[in-house]
Amino acid sequence: QRAAFNFREMINSKPAYVQIRLIGVEAMGREIIRVDAQPDGRGAKIISGAQLQYKGSRDYFHEALAVPAGEIYLSAMGLNREQGKIQLPFVPVVRAAVKVTTAAGEPFGILVINYDLTQLFNAITTVSNPSHRYYLGDGKGSFLRHTDRSAEFGFEFGKPEMLYAEFPSMRRLQTGDVTAVSYTHLRAHETRHDLV
Predict the structure, then answer these.
(1) Is the N or the C terminus of the chain less surrounded, counting Cβ atoms within 10 Å?
(2) Can you give the pTM of this predicted structure?
């Protein structure tokens, strides 16, 4: 119980924390402790009983367990999910996790913090000049922030590489064929700098 109260205080003091969880390796990765931030800044809530979820099938659970004890695992950016469904309105998150071990050094579970990226994305893509547009993408060709919000996180909806479809030169940047791409009036200008 003390850990749950500590997690609640952490969320109350860090508005970007969406969730803090201790997920065990037993029982298909069931949450042991879970504390959720509440909408509209109403503080944090300790979740218990039937509301605790099984996360053993999620990639981040297995990937975090594979990281050596004492090292921090960072997930890929994605949309927060509850009960297997994408949370609405969308909450872009990254998960930071550490493996928790028993006194004998055996894996017990993972401690995970879901960090809300909304304010960071807003700060990156907010521009004072209305004639400028900023987009944010990942290294796999998906938009994380776009002027058309329906284009964001396409990989979550079976539509990966929407960034490459809209800006084909960005694929060439990813593969290393060019080293810089700038757009003027949505026309690409590619630059190649050979490294010696």
Answers:
(1) C
(2) 0.84
Q: For the chain, give the mean pLDDT.
A: 88
- C-alpha span between 156 and 78 (Å, rounded): 8
Q: State residue 187's pLDDT score.
A: 65
Q: Which of helix, strand or coil describes residue 137?
A: strand
SS3 150: helix
Report the distance separating Cα 48 and Cα 71, nearest Å. 28
Tell me the β-bridge partners of 110. Answer: 23, 99
C-alpha pair distances (Å), 191 with each of 168, 184, 188, 195: 14, 14, 10, 13
* CB crowding 56-90: b at 16 or more within 10 Å, else e: bebebbebbbeeeeeeebebebbbbbeeeeeeeee
Separation between Cα atoms, residue 34 and residue 94, nearest integer Å: 17
